[in-house]
Amino acid sequence: MYLLKKIKISFIIFSIVLIIFLLKFNFMKNKQAIIKEQKRSLLMQQEKEPRQQQEQKVESNKIIKLKFDKIYETKMWGPQGDGSGPGSTIEFTAKFRNIA
């Protein structure tokens, strides 16, 4: 009777330890899955940021081009030459063209 009781207690303790181990193992698997997902998400974000920066740069360049197109078309820099301003006339650029 005493031996049977000892075996039952040992079995219960073993079962509890096994359950704890399995729970901990499952927790570690879940933790690894969460870490893997976080890394994947971070990599995606890092890949996305350069695209967003590139798109912002393209938009910024379009705005700058529109401004300079307007300046050129309305000859805001003066009526001389072709609309690019007094520094772009044939006479003004002659000394620079002769250097090359």
Secondary-structure map:
Elements: H1 2-73, H2 90-97
Order of helices and strands: HH
Beta fraction = under 5%
Helix and strand content put the structural class at mainly alpha
Number of strands: 0
Straight-line distance between termini: 111 Å
Radius of gyration: 38 Å
Largest sheet: none
List segments where confidence is low: pLDDT < 50 over at least 5 consecutive residues.
Answer: none
Structural summary, described in words:
The protein is mainly alpha-helical. It has a domain at 1-47. The protein is built from two helices and no strands. The protein has helices at residues 2-73, 90-97. The longest helix has 72 residues, at 2-73.
List keywords for this structure.
2 helices; mainly alpha; 0% strand; 100 residues
Describe the structure concisely for a colleague.
The longest helix has about 70 residues, at about 1-75. This protein has helices at about 1-75, 90-95. The protein is mostly helical.
